[in-house]
Amino acid sequence: MELEAFHCPRWEELPQLALYMDQVLLVLSTAFAPLSAGQPPVTASMINNYVKLKLTAPAEKKKYNREHLARFVMICLFKKVLSMQEIAAVLERMLAGQSLPAAYDRFAAELERLLAAPDAPAPQDSPNCVALSIRAVACKLWVEADLAKNNP
């Protein structure tokens, strides 16, 4: 799959029902299949670590909701280029003054825009660290795709 065609699921496309861990892993694996080269994008232990690091709230009665999924998508992509401390700071800036659904949809749209046109200018209405972090993810994905294409 070409990166230009990658679709990051929007808020309304994420499951509305609360999911158990194995279902969360399946949803994330499906969403990231075009980017993962057969490797799982996240494991149960990774998710447990994100909760321990307070990057997301704990599961409610062993189930994860749409808010968890949105955060997991962003964390999985940001972890390609940022430390966990940096991810926490970027997420905090992303969510300053806007709801998680709005911030998540902006993230998904910006990532897709940069995958379609890597040299596109940064949006003027995002905090600089957020825009640069999303650009770094897009650049990393382009590097991985190029290396995979040239080294079958």
Summarize the structure.
This protein is mainly alpha-helical. It has 6 helices and no strands.
Explain how this protein is built:
- It is a single chain.
- The chain is an all-alpha fold and 152 residues long.
- Helices cover 59% and strands 0% of the residues.
- The protein contains six helices and no strands.
- The two termini are 14 Å apart.
- The mean pLDDT is 90.
Tags for this model:
single chain, 152 residues, mainly alpha, 6 helices, globular
Average pLDDT taken over every residue: 90
Distance between the termini: 14 Å
Structural class: mainly alpha
Number of DSSP strands? 0
Order of helices and strands: HHHHHH
| Tally of helical segments | 6
Shape: globular
Uncertain residue ranges: none
InterPro entries: DUF1836
Protein name: DUF1836 domain-containing protein
Task: Show the helix and strand layout.
Blueprint (H helix, E strand, L loop, with lengths): L20 H16 L7 H9 L13 H13 L5 H12 L4 H17 L11 H23 L2
Helix pairs in contact: 3-5, 5-6
